[in-house]
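The following record pairs a protein chain with its ligand, zinc ion.
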Amino acid sequence: MNVVPRVCTICERYQKIGNYYGVPACCACKMFFKRAIADNEMTSHAIPTKSCRMQCRECRLFRCVEKGMFIIPESTFNVNNYDKLTSLLVNLEHMQVVRTNKLETMHIFTNPSIEEIAWNGRPKFEKRPKDMTMDVTEWSFMCGITAIDYALNFPHIAELAVYDRKLILRNCFFYLALLSDALRAVTNKQDSLSFPDGSDVIPPNTDEVSDELKKRIRITLVGRACELQITKEETYLLSTIIMSNPSVADISPAARKSLETNQQIYTSALFQLCQAKNGASGPSRFVDLLSLCHKLENTQACFGYLSMTCAQNRNPVCMKKLFDH
Ligand SMILES: [Zn+2]
Ligand SMILES: [Zn+2]
């Protein structure tokens, strides 16, 4: 292990640095992260302020997660290692906190394509000005790019070859964004798909598209998610299963193998969670959750039809390169 003194990615002190949980860090930060996740020592999720500068535990943990520290599950889950599942869920919860914080308070002022992100790594976020107007284009873009940033926080996605990473991100980011929107709708007791500020996901001036199609976009997924009352833990695991899809066309055999292994791990985690929370009806809960994927596909297809129809009428819905094919 490399022990030449360097600056720790987390605490920024000059220390002996090793590669811990995927990030060049000092031993103290490694131990801090391990205790926070594996021992679930921290239950509060305070969002760091600029003035704090890492002085509190919340900021330090936020930074660990933001910089990509992740305790990789090493094997599939079963009834005998439920404690490992608990720490995975704690880790995923902290990742979601980082993602939500970026979506609600940060912005990206460039217009990268998925290919550019696959080459250059996770995008750089900046503070969103308080008076910035968020329209459908900006919200769609931010929901999409925070989903991509979230996926790249997983080592098995970040470590894919550039070409594979591009295909995997393109395949999953819209689903991840939709699933997160659906969870927010369930949490906020809304019956329609909307952006974080509650605004409608359908752009104005789209009269050329039928109300029936718009209705399907708004309620197909959310309606089912509300019926099932999906929980955040279920959503985190389902998202990870979706991003680890080994069936995406044209990926390399090496990527396929790695994704397959990871998808099995997260699928077993979801199954164990269903068993633990639902007892005898665990298996049917598991099937119900996986069937949400059809609603995701359906909603994405409707969005595709909407933007295609509007583009034909010289009324593009979203000018961001993220959504290019
Ligand atoms: Zn450190
Ligand atoms: Zn702080």
